[in-house]
């Protein structure tokens, strides 16, 4: 006889109440994905350097045309509040002080992955497609490639393209802005 394990799913509101009551602290490295509180992997030096490089590069290229959020929450729906490594957001006077950015506020999300490549590819990328995020980049530190996901549907992205060393990519919302894979990886 097999036993069915019951899982307790949480809403974003319940998740925030856990922080307010001290069950979770703002220093806990967790995110809410499909109602489950997921512990995030520690950030290694290569991962941190890549995020820093992307932030620096994107600020130089886009300036005040965007708000650049690094490792901050985004509100996708009632049961998911991930913290992508980089989010390019539409400018707002309050800098999102009254609410976390929602899908319609997002130009681009970037996930930098080393130990979480499969999780990001199989769990987070489809979640972003369901939320209708127009473009997502998966920066794979191990393979030194950037996967660009576009054209979201209810279940997945219709278009995915891989970029490797020496190749150039652009952001869908800013087609005149070119970034090389070598710049992303510091080569």
Task: Report on this structure.
By secondary structure, the protein is an alpha+beta fold. It has a single domain, classed as tt1808, chain A, CATH 3.90.1570. Helices cover 25% and strands 30% of the residues. It is built from 4 helices and 10 strands; from the N terminus they run H-E-E-H-E-E-E-H-E-E-E-E-E-H. Strands 3-4-5-6-7-8 form a 6-stranded mixed sheet, with helices on both faces. A two-stranded antiparallel ribbon has the order 1-2. The longest helix has 18 residues, at 45-62. The radius of gyration is 17 Å and the shape is globular.
Q: What is the element layout, followed by pairings?
A:
Elements: H1 12-20, E1 30-33, E2 36-39, H2 45-62, E3 67-70, E4 86-89, E5 106-113, H3 117-130, E6 135-140, E7 145-152, E8 157-163, E9 168-171, E10 174-180, H4 181-185
Parallel strand pairs: 5-6
Antiparallel strand pairs: 1-2, 3-4, 4-5, 6-7, 7-8, 9-10
Features:
187 residues; alpha+beta; tt1808, chain A; six-stranded mixed β-sheet; two-stranded antiparallel ribbon; 10 strands; globular
CATH class term: Alpha Beta
Query: What is the rounded Rg?
Result: 17 Å
CATH fold-level topology = tt1808, chain A
Shape: globular
- Quickly give the CATH architecture: Alpha-Beta Complex
For the largest sheet, list the strands in their spatial order.
3-4-5-6-7-8
Secondary-structure element string: HEEHEEEHEEEEEH
Structural domain tally:
1
Helix content: 10-25%
Portion of residues in beta strands equals 25-35%
Number of DSSP E strands:
10
Could you give a short account of the major beta sheet?
6 strands, mixed
CATH superfamily: tt1808, chain A
What structural category characterises the helix and strand content?
Answer: alpha+beta
Q: What is the overall pLDDT average?
A: 93
What is the first-to-last residue Cα distance? 56 Å
User: What is the oligomeric state here?
Assistant: single chain
Unreliable residue stretches: none
Question: How many separate helices?
Answer: 4
């Amino acid at each position: 006889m097999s036993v069915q394990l019951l899982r307790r799913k949480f809403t974003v509101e319940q998740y925030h109440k856990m922080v307010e009551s001290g069950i979770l602290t703002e220093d806990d490295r967790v995110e809410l994905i499909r109602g489950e509180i997921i512990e995030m992997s520690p950030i290694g030096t290569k991962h941190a350097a890549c995020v820093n490089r992307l932030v620096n590069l994107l600020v130089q290229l886009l300036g005040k045309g965007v708000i650049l959020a690094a490792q901050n929450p985004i509100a996708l729906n009632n049961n998911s509040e991930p913290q992508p490594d980089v989010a390019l957001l539409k400018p707002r006077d309050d800098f999102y002080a009254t609410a976390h950015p929602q899908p319609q506020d997002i130009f681009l999300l970037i996930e930098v992955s080393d130990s979480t490549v499969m999780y990001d590819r199989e769990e987070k990328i489809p979640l972003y497609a369901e939320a209708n995020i127009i473009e997502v980049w998966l920066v794979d530190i191990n393979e030194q490639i950037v996967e660009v996901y576009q054209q979201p549907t209810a279940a997945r992205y219709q278009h995915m393209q891989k970029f490797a060393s020496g190749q150039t990519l652009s952001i869908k919302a800013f087609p005149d802005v070119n970034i090389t894979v070598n710049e992303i990886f510091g080569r």
